[in-house]
Amino acid sequence: MAGKQHNRTGTASRLLTLEDMLFRACLLSGYGARARKLASQLAAISHCSDGRSCLDAGAPMQLTVDAPGVAKLRVGIRMNNKPDPASLANLVDKQTLDYIENTINQLPDYQHASIGTWLFWSEKKQSIFIDLRDPDVNDSIKRLDILLNKQQKQHFNELRLRLSDARPWALRIDTDQLGNNQMHLHWVLNRHTRMDLLAERQTPGYWKLVTETLGHLLSRPGKSGRWLIITPLNDSNSQILRVGNSGWTFVPENHNKQRSLSRLISLLEGPRDYAEALWSLCQGTATPGWRVGRACELSISADGIKTRLFYTPQVQPGSVAVTSNSVSADSSIPESNALPVKEYRIIR
Asked: What average pLDDT does range 175-180 have in this prediction?
């Protein structure tokens, strides 16, 4: 299955249900006899909404691949804005359930078409994404005021001064079995903001590694797509540059795009065969024009480079097919390798 290019007919009947797509992803991730039950549990928490972003295109799920790393399932599921804790009981620990019920579900109602609350699930770690794309940024700040403790609020206020050309986009809350919550704020930059200048102010010398890494996926790595900058709110002294970019969405879904992701995952010592197998699964059941590869996150520090690729499968949530107007292709994949990655240390 790995590396196979499918000939797509474009018929809507090819689309898998959400549960069937999850089932196949679980099988590829090594869950074997447990795959069907896990897929059913994940599908049960999903919820359709009218909101969409360039990252999810309105789809109810996403899959990610990390490099460096090993083949492991990490899946994002779009939930209701106020998730039902009972449906999550077999997927997260009690501390997380209590946090959802007593904190997240007490947030004010949205006054816009929200993309929902997302659960990104892996066996050892879960992350909850809170939508902060309120048209009035003051409404998103009110949500943060409920979610953050005193120290995190202080750090957020300091960041607002430094990131005056950006606004909160989403809050990622990483939970673990010890009940520790790590907060990461995703800021979306204004369209005309110079990301290179901002990155150099934050972490001098790292921007070159960003463009060289993205150069494997994009022909214009410093120019294509919208930019996110991701800041930890638990650590005010972090010297890691974390950024996200949606430029991969604009790249046509062809052999070159598949080869580029395989090359990057391999160079960063990630699970290339797994990345290709997931790609073939997602692309092989999608209709023409659908973009599977949509975004890339990078984490760069003195220790090395980490990347996370986001796949967005096209599926049928229940009986309603998810469709999207695809973006026009204004980018292509360079044939030559852009990043001399072996010169840098790789995070393990």
From this structure: 70
